[in-house]
């Protein structure tokens, strides 16, 4: 045990998971080394880097090689057995004298040989081979192919895959339509619940209101001829106006003139906005405003004169000689 763990790092000795992984890797390397030694017939294989990727690649190559060797050996045994049986049947058939009986025997022997070959192949198939053969037979039966070949099965599988893709797309579209219909049904149900509320219910006296409206309609309908006669009489006595385009134009110009005057008066009245309603008080306030305006004007003039005097350059005074 000490010799086997001598090549492990110190952390692996105290870690069961690391120790198991290292032991499994060492076991896989032993298997790969033995397989390479067998394939090179005792000679040393070329040097290569020993890492996890190389180990996985060599394990996959060794597994595939062993499967191929098993299939080749199985095929060789089947062919050898079939050849021996055919030779035995051929020697037995040659010993017959009667040609008719000989031909019948040959047919029977050929059928027996074929059944024997098929039985031998079926019995010596591996588990994966038997599963593959059963799968191919099931596919052939499902597709309705009597004498199925790999090309026919592949073509049929491609057609089935295309049909499956189309059905999946149709299913997706149907699901989208179903979700849309569900949303619309939910909206309709909500609307139906809202319509059941009090606000949407007709009043209890709706029938009475309908009767009253119908009674009023009948009364007014009966008075229509009388009203028409009155309108005709008034039109004949007064005379209905018959305006022309020129008359309408003059009325429009007069209206626009009045509108302009109204706007001017409104502007003038707006300037007096804020004054008291009493005339005397309004005049007094107007005088106060005028005096304030005069005071502000005088102040402005004084400030302007001061600025002019300050900014005007002064001439130097001349001294008398």
Q: Can you walk me through this structure?
A:
- It is a single chain.
- The chain is built from nine helices and no strands.
- It has 321 residues and is mainly α.
- The chain starts with 9 loop residues before the first helix and ends in a 10-residue tail after the last helix.
Helix/strand layout:
Blueprint: H1 10-13, H2 16-39, H3 52-94, H4 99-124, H5 127-143, H6 150-195, H7 206-238, H8 245-271, H9 279-311
Helix pairs in contact: 2-3, 3-4
Please outline the major beta sheet. none
How many angstroms separate the termini? 138 Å
Please report the total strand number as a whole number.
0
- Rg, please? 59 Å
Structural category: mainly alpha
* Average pLDDT metric: 78
Beta-strand level of the residues, as a percent range? under 5%
Please work out how many helical segments DSSP would assign. Answer: 9
Gross morphology is elongated
Order of helices and strands: HHHHHHHHH
Residue windows where pLDDT falls under 50 for at least 5 positions: 1-8
Helix content: over 70%
Brief summary:
With 321 residues, the protein is mainly alpha-helical.
Main features:
single chain, 321 residues, mainly alpha, 0% strand, elongated, disordered N terminus
């Amino acid at each position: 045990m000490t010799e086997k763990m001598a090549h492990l790092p110190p952390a692996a000795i105290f870690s069961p998971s690391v120790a198991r992984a290292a032991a499994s890797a060492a076991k896989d390397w032993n298997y790969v080394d033995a397989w390479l030694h067998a394939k090179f017939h005792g000679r040393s294989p070329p040097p290569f880097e020993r890492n996890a990727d190389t180990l996985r690649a060599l394990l996959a190559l060794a597994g595939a090689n062993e499967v191929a060797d098993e299939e080749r050996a199985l095929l060789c045994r089947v062919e050898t057995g079939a050849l021996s049986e055919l030779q035995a049947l051929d020697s037995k058939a040659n010993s017959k004298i009667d040609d008719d009986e000989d031909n019948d025997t040959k047919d029977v022997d050929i059928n027996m040989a074929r059944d024997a070959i098929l039985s031998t192949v079926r019995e010596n198939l591996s588990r994966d081979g038997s599963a593959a053969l059963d799968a191919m037979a099931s596919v052939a039966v499902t597709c309705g192919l009597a004498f199925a070949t790999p090309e026919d099965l592949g073509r049929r599988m491609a057609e089935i895959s295309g049909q499956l893709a189309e059905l999946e797309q149709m299913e997706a579209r149907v699901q989208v339509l179903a979700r849309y219909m569900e949303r619309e049904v939910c909206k309709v149900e909500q609307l139906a619940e809202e319509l059941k509320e009090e606000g949407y219910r007709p009043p209890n006296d709706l029938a009475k209101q309908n009767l009253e409206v119908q009674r009023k309609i009948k009364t007014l309908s009966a008075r229509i001829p009388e009203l028409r006669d009155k309108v005709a009489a008034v039109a004949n006595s007064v005379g209905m106006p018959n305006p022309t385009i020129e008359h309408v134009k003059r009325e429009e110009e007069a209206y626009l003139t009045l509108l302009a005057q109204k706007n001017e008066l409104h502007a003038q009245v707006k300037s007096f906005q804020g004054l008291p309603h009493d005339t005397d008080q309004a005049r007094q306030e107007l005088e106060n405003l005028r005096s304030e305006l005069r005071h502000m004007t005088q102040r402005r003039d004084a400030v302007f004169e001061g600025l002019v005097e300050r900014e005007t350059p002064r001439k130097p005074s001349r001294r008398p000689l």
